[in-house]
Structures are given as C-alpha cells and as structure tokens.
Amino acid sequence: MERGESLRKQMDILIELKTAFKQQRAKGGASAQDSKEEASIPCTFSSEEDSVKDKTELEQLQETDELEKNDEVAYTEVPSSGELVKPVRMKSEDIGKQLRSVSSRSFNCQGKNLKINIPLTTPSRTFSAISYLVWEDLVNQSSKKCTSEGMSKLHVNKTKLHHADKMIRGAFVELYKGLGYLKTYKNVNMLAFIKILKKFDKATGKQVLPIYLKVVESSYFNSSDKVMNLADEVEELFIKHFAEEDRRKAMKYLKPHHRKESHSVTFFIGLFTGCFIALFAGYVIMAHITGLYRRQPNSIYMETAYPILSMFSLLFLHFFLYGCNIFAWRKARINYSFIFELSPTIELKYRDVFLICTTSMSVVVGVMFLHLFLLTKGYSYTQVQAIPGLLLLMFLLLLVCPFNIIYKSSRCRLLRVIRNIILSPLYKVAMLDFFMADQLCSQVPMLRNLEYVACYYITGSYKTQDYGYCMRATHYRDLAYAVSFLPYYWRAMQCARRWFDEGETSHLLNLGKYVSAMLAAGAKVSYEKEKGAGWLCLVVIMSTFATVYQLYWDFVKDWGLLQMNSKNPLLRNELMLRRKIIYYFSMGLNLVLRLAWLQTVLHSSFGHVDYRVTGLFLAALEVIRRGLWNFYRLENEHLNNAGKFRAVKTVPLPFHEADEED
Fold it and tell me: What is the C-alpha separation between 442 and 623, in angstroms, rounded?
C-alpha cells in the first residue's frame, strides 16, 4: 500500500513536469526560429549539500545530444541564502559516495522541493560522473563566475523525463505483479483451509466446516478489497498515461502471456538430433580413414579447419548445458526468469535451446563433412578452404540479422549483454551480465580459436595456405595472449563496478579472485614462451593459489555451502534437491575439474591423437564444470531471494523530496 501511494505521488510529479514541458514547447514553437533564448518554467534548483554539489552543469550538458537540445526545459539555479560558493575538495574515501549520488539533483518546482535521481547505468552517465570529478575545480571556478552574475542556467531535457517515465512505468508493472501474487496467495490459502476442513470433517464425521469457514470468510485477510482496488487503480493509471488509452496494449505489459510450447519443436529436435548423429558418425569414420587426427608434424587440416569445428563444438556444448540447466531449474522450482529478469513472452524454453543446438550442430557437422569429403575426392585445400570460413560468416550474419526471424528478441538481448560486458565497467551490472561474463571465463579456448580463425581469413592466409602467419606475426600473437586475459578482466571490472554501486567489500574480494586467475594465466603464457624450471614453478604456485581461491568462492560464496552450523553437514540448511549425495558429488567433481590446469605441467595426451584433440577434451571438461556451477549458483540466488521475500523487482523511483530521509 505504501508503494502504491509513493507511485501515485511520483505519477503526479511526472504529469506536472510533462505538462510544463509541453506548454514551453507550445510557447516556444513560434519564436524558436527567431530567438536562440531557451524557454523556462518557474522552477529553481536549491544548492543543498547532498545534491547540488553532486551535480554540475557539465554533467547536464554531456547527457544531451544535438537532437535533444531543442527539446529542453530551462531552469535557473540560485545559491541558497547565506551559503558561500567555494571549491569543494573531495577526500579519496568520499569519491565513491560522491559518484554514486552524482546523478541526483534537487530543485523546487511550484512549491515542491524535489530531487530527481537517474542511476548511472549507461556510459554517458558514467562518463559524466567521471568528468565531474576530473574537472571539478574548473567547474567550481565557473560556478563562482555564474554566482557573481546572480544565477546560472541548467537544463532538464527530454531525455531526463523519458528516463523518469520509464522508471515509473517499470515500477507500476512490478507493483501490479506483486498485487497479483498477493491475490493468488489469499486465494490459495483460502482453498487450502477449505480442503483441510473437508478432510477433517470426513475423518471425524463432524461438520465444523461451516462454523470455521464463516469466521475465516469474515476476517480482514479475506474480506479486505484494498488489493483489488489498488490493482484497478494501477490499471487505470497505466492505461491512461503509458498505453494511450489502449487497454489491450496496457495488458501486454501488466499481464504478459507465456508463449505456448509447440509439439513441432519437439519433433524437429528429434529430427535434427538424428541428422546430427548420422552426419557426425560419417565424419568420424572418414576422419579415421584419412588419419587426420593422428599426431603429425604439419597438418593443414588441423591448423585451419579443425579450430572452426572445435569452436562450434564448445559453443553449442555450452548452450546445450544451458538448456539442461533450464530444465533442472524448472524441475527444482527455481525462478530463473525472475533472477535473470527475462520476459515470459520472449524467453527461451529448454526445448528452444535444444532445437537451436541440434539444428546448428547438424549444419556445422554437415558442412565439415562436405569439406572433408571434397578433400578426399582430390580437391586442393586452396579450392575448398573458404567453406569453413563461410560457415562462420553465416552464423555471425545470422546473429546480427535485423529481421524478425530465428528468435530475434533473444539474439538482441544476447548482443546487449555482450556489449555491456565489453564496455565494463561503464554499464551498471545486472545478474545476467556477470553470469554471462562467468560463462566467457570458461570459454577462453573458444575465444582463442575465434581470434586465430579471424586472423587466418581476414589476412587472406587461406589463399596461400600460410597458416603459420598468425603465429609468427608479433601483433597477432600478442592479441591471442590478450584474448586469454579479457574474460577475467571484464569480470574484474564488473566486480569493481558493483563495488562502486553498492559499496560492499565482498565485490573487491571477488575482484581479487579474477586478478589471481589473470596472474595464473600470465604465468602459463610465459611458460609457453620460455620453457624453464623457474617458470614451471611459478605456474604451479600461481595456479594452485588461484585454484584454492576459486574453490573457496565456488563452495562458500556462489553455492552457499560449507556452512559449519548447518543441519546438513558441510552444506546449508535449505536445499532444493532431496538427495544430499548430489551436493557432495558435485563438490568433488567441481574440485577435480578445477585441476585441469595440471595438464600444462603433465603434458598428457591420448596415445597417438593430435594434441589439439586433447585440448578440446580438456576445454569441454571446463564447459561441463561451468554447466554444473550454473545450477547451484542460481539455486543459491533463488534461496536468498526467498529468504528475503523478494518476488518482484524493486525499481528505483526518480523523484524524491529533498528533505525526506531515503
């Protein structure tokens, strides 16, 4: 009820600002061509310590672009009485706090002393906050000049109002969802109470149901209509202000329907699974006959075509395990959609994931089978070597295809997540962002293969069969080493951003885990360059430290296990799986698979098989370990949400009264 009242106030403020904004555009429409002076409404910004010093004109101007400059509402800033404008020196420990609130600004609008707060979730806002700190002295000097003139000009533009509108709309959606859950909770409890009394009457032969039911039905829990009234009010406000009086459009946001699962998906999964098995069997037989996978000094096929097959194999194995995770989460009643903030109308079901995997691998193995078949028929590598490159290009074009085909919404979401990861720490980190970054940490071999294949085809080496060029060229070799560090770097930057946003020391400790992984990877790279006992000892020491660090974080932080006071020995009190032995087995398997780096020291191989096949096998083990880790990571997150009674997202609100305590 308090949330509903707060949202009602937010809506009133937003409507008031929008109305003022439209009035100014209407007034300035005729004179805008003849005058450069911007319109303004009677609102003033107050120089309060917790808001004005955290926001400057530079930050405001950097958030606008040329298109939005014509749609601004101007305000005037005046210093509060008795306050001297002086340059403010920040202490190092205050920087994080200052930056976290740099997007807030207090102003007085038609008698209301308010503060607008737009979170620093995008690079433009983040750069604005950093620019504020870097150029603070210059800005303060400019503020002093403006103060001497009596006032300075600041702007609240259309973008600000759009962000505020979007935040309030999301808050209304979550409030409506929470009210629906509350209504369902009431109905389920009433139904359970009636069934219990019916069974009691049947077992005892008494008729107590009418007596107790009369009391329960008249109770406030059942008779109160506040939830229904508030839900109706939310519907009316949403339809009026966010759906242009279109109820059907509003219900798509408030009550999204789950996408129906089709039996045709199951049929095609079986069809493409059969195709994949047949093609893969044919490919393996042909590769065995030609002896491609045997250890050879100079194998053109293993150096050029095999990395593409290896890359797709690791990618779709990981995707297949994600489908298995979705199936297991659903069976264990883990609310992964809420944790990942996935829309029920467009989220991928486990059948969709399996269909994508089987279809894609059928295409990949079919093309590789055709490529190998042409080689056995006497075609030269020069004639057929473009085929694997075209396969990779086809998948890349399909990923960025703008047409509404082949799960466009999921592809766009994936591209946005990848963008957020690459531009870490400029974007605010969501659960799906750092979850995906963790997956990339297990796909370093795939990324290195991708870098090598891209170099091989972009430089035109496939035409001359000079497959060693990308290994000889210094800049390409250094880039290959950099790819090994990038996933850990991105994840470390995400930890730094989360510490910046939330101020929790645990994020810095998590950052240390990825730094240790980068140091271990650096030691391995140096050992590959210069084989020596000293580098070998350093590899063992750094890898052992990183492994212990990672195992502790896996078991204690990510999985929530190894609780000493738990009623389940070495586990936790709440378990989603019935059999405890599964948890112990998973912990042991995670420990064994974490030790895959020992292959760097032991140089193990499978008989006369090429070392690249061994590398693919070890990389697949790491992908399997990550798939196992995924289930328990989300199980722990789900239990934390349930323990804190989180069933809907808490959307931050843009407007706050400057004198109220948040």
Answer: 6
